[in-house]
Amino acid sequence: MQILVSMLALSPPTGPHAIGTVTYHWVDLERRELFSDDPDQRRELMVQLWYPALDVPSSPRAPYLPEADAVAPALARFLGVSASTFAPLARLTTNAVAQAPFADGAPRCPVLIMLVGLKGSYRQVQTFQAEELASHGFVVAAIDQPYAAAMVVFPEGRRAAYDDRWDPPHSAFMDAHLPYLARDALFTLDQLAALDQADPNGILTGRLDLDRAGLVGQSLGAVVGSEACRLDRRLRAGLLEEGFMPADVVRDGLRQPIMFITRDADSMRRERQAAGGWSETDIEETLHTMRTVYERLPGDGYYVQIAGMFHLDMTDAPFLSSLVPWPGLSGPIGAERAHGIINAYSLAFFDRKLRHRPARLLDGPPPRFPEVTFEARRR
Q1: Residue 124's CATH number
Q2: What is the pairing mode between strands 96-98 and 18-32?
């Protein structure tokens, strides 16, 4: 079992900062929980933050999935394997330290809201990306969205399981509830502003720059994230990774700088041949709506296609291949290569758009990434 845990190790981030992490439980008293039959229940979120931290090498690393006893069986159920399959996740640790002191001398940091995918996802599922961005001086806040994620665990052990009415990849139910999920991101922005004023943990007070806020969304997170960007210009830049764009986003467009990360249709078909999914209708809707929004951007935009990548290569899911040899976890490009490319473009985009720093990667496709087809719009 220890061998499996070591095979699941996350790659170390490349930035100059050590990483801290802390999780908050927030209740939106102004919104009823739409997925509950209790009319008095309010919307609750679990939000995990990664941030640049003081390096304390002797401190134990934070667990990858603290609620593994609840989340791991939900993941196993979705994949049709035994509940014990993902037991090693309870012993996997990350590169972060829980509640580490904030990095000495670090200025106020840009803040990134992170929205993850549907059903088999959980707030930590893009830890590879969250840790990389935090190591370069960003604060990343990943949201567990109750009833859309695999399983959300609240304090005192209360749980919110995935609601089957979501019926991926697209449904009328989804369309009707996307604005509700988008409000989770906007509520989180409000809570982060309050946290900057007075963090009850004494870590993030005065450290968050909400004037430089952006969003990262993958799959359903990209769908919901595009809606959040449409609704609130406090989100000054959006990185949207392979999700169809909702009708109102296609209709109204987006005003912020946007980077799309996806792949070509042939790579999607190759995933369908290997693991199912990705009908021609899904492929057309995803690529057409992303392309439409990109081409109508009034300002800067970027369209990045990574050949040979599968959908889950944009998450930590390929690390699970030693536990579940499912062919859909990673494409022929391999997770390490996909993660390296995604992290490079994520950092370049937010460096340029939130920090106004040079980002040569966005000036043209580099020879070191021959898998990438890169397009840019500049106004």
Answers
A1: 3.40.50.1820
A2: parallel
